[in-house]
Amino acid sequence: MLSNMFLTPKIIGILNVTPDSFSDGGLFVDGKHAVARALQMEKEGAHIIDIGGESSRPGAQPVSVEEELGRVIPVIRELRRRSPIAISVDTQKSIVAARAIEVGATMINDITAGLGDPKMFFVAAKFGVSICLMHMKGTPQTMQASPHYDDVVGEVKQFLASRIAAALQAGIAKEKIIIDPGLGFGKRLEDNIALLKNCDHFLELGCPILIGVSRKSFIGQITGAPVEERLPGSLAAAAIALQKGASIFRVHDVAATKQFLTTTLVPHGSAFR
Description:
Blueprint: E1 10-16, H1 31-44, E2 48-52, H2 65-82, E3 86-90, H3 94-102, E4 107-110, H4 120-127, E5 130-134, H5 152-169, E6 177-180, H6 189-197, E7 210-211, H7 217-223, H8 231-243, E8 248-251, H9 254-265
């Protein structure tokens, strides 16, 4: 059974409080600016704000627990004080996840699907929060070093199935699990295209599908557009994913994505809220 929250499409607004993220790095390292951006995305139509304090762009270097806590906790605390919006913490570290939940986060977005920290599933189960499990080949430091797949859709699906099973065994309720095929994380252009075209294959796993295509490099490879000009390509990729069953869209451009989803769903008799 899918969580009621994800039965209709949802928008996750990206808020990187980092100096080095690929698109918005350095824009929101100041806490006041970060909270203001989160409130702006809420007004534009975001259902969830995903706050990350460690970049996962290709080649990004890890940061310490203390540094990550210092970046995300004040922002989550202040945002929760000012808004009831759902908050996701984008982290690989169970300590950061636990502290974020204690001050107001309601979801964990873990790009390692629980493999980066063996205590992550324990934290999610203990607090009863939603958790997104993503596929990534390697680490941010190595993931784009000649990735190769014999069958990218089958291999990613098998990985996600195994991580769902591990999460369930750890005591996480099935309706709290979200899956993300990890476009751009250890994928070639042809791999990203194959995953988009076959997104519906992941529906068989019984969890809501999150897609993160916003401004990613594969869109630049297709269109030649620099990162700040990839909104049209991002919306086109989101359209393909929506048609193939994705229901959660992690984006930088919330207002444009809301308009896109609203217009796309109306002819099908669906309302976007």
